[in-house]
Amino acid sequence: MKRSKRDEVLELLRRELASGRYPAESLLPSENELREQWGISRNTIREAVSVLVQEGLVERRRGSGTRVVATESTLRSCLLIVRTTGDLYERQAQDLQRYLQERGVIPMILPLPDDGEAAIIDLRSGLRYASAHRMDGLIVHGLPNEVREFLTTARSTLSTVIVNEGVSDLPHAVNQIVADHFRGARLATHHLRKLGHERILAVIHRYNFLSPGRAIHQARGVYGDLIRGYIEGLDGESPHYHFIDREFLDSQDVEGLRRQLRGPRRPTAIFAVGDYRAKAVIDIAGQLGLRVPEELAVVGYGNTPWATLGQLPLTTIEHHYERIAELAVEQLFPSQAPEFSPTTRIVEPELVVRTSCGARIVPSSFSSRRIRQA
């Protein structure tokens, strides 16, 4: 998740406010002092301070500088560990960060690598930092399997919430907010089956869920749930996959899809995990002279901004990531005394029907937005 210089400065300032370095009624260093300290332009610093003013954390006084309004005791902070591989993770990480800030919670953001061992090292360092700076909680977004197992045994004193893991193999030792990807994939595939399609191709990122010797249906985590949901949604039809090894389709991926779409038993519909992949599929189909949706129905996943770009709006799955972010903050900072045992809240998906699947559009007819407790 690429961040602007302004956001980086904003995080530094929020972190120092949360640490108590600048107590209430004290003055922040001047723009020139911060520029010399951090080597960042005055305009960037001014933009970041303006955000703090809007949030009510500081106020500008003409002729006397920028005064800190909030005391250390009124500020809440958390360690936000995010996984940013893929547009699904990126969108949710952005929603989490925005919602925390809107609720007066200062997040320290630590990007999480895909490699499990490296992620555990970073997580240990993050936990030590959060404890040393008396942070109020920990939100972990998107977990490699090794990190999930580490968190179930780690003896952290921080209130912890896990966001967006696979439903099928959830840990039970921590609080969780989960998007139900099994139901999302089943909803997308079943919709295509109801439209009469039998040969439905799934375009999905391999990531690291297919370890040597493991069958596809044994995949773990989010992508394991996606595959199982896709298979169940087929209602007995044979599954067909096109796995890609990179975030965006490279020339090898494109050529592989071309071969499948030109074959004698080509798919009549495609379920692409990731809206940007679904848009790439539509482009490839157009290059081959296949009309979407008349000759090839396409359904994406995530309801990201990609879904409404271009002349052909994309049928896709909405997981209500804003609500997931809201629930994560509520669970981390409950208005009432927290429950004794960890809880899991599962946010269910909604099928957003647009032009790319060829269905008659009936607003909200496929909505299944519910929140259930596991």
Task: Give a quick precis of the structure.
This protein is of the alpha/beta class. It contains eleven helices and 15 strands.
Could you describe the 3D structure shown?
The protein contains 11 helices and 15 strands. With 374 residues, it is α/β, with parallel strands linked by helices. The chain has a 7-stranded mixed beta sheet with strand order 4-3-5-6-7-13-15, with helices on both faces. A 4-stranded parallel beta sheet has the order 9-8-10-11, with helices on both faces. Strands 1-2 form a two-stranded antiparallel sheet. Helix 10 links the parallel strand 10 (269-272) and strand 11. The protein is elongated.
Percent strand equals 15-25%
**How helix-rich are the residues, as a percent range?**
25-40%
- Count of extended strands: 15
Form type: elongated
Mean pLDDT across the residues is 79
Structural class by sheet pairing and helices: alpha/beta
Element pattern in H and E: HHHEEEHEHEHEEHEHEHEHEEHEEE
Question: What is the C-alpha radius of gyration, as a whole number of Å?
Answer: 23 Å
Low-confidence stretches: 208-213, 362-369
End-to-end gap: 30 Å
* Main sheet characteristics: 7 strands, mixed
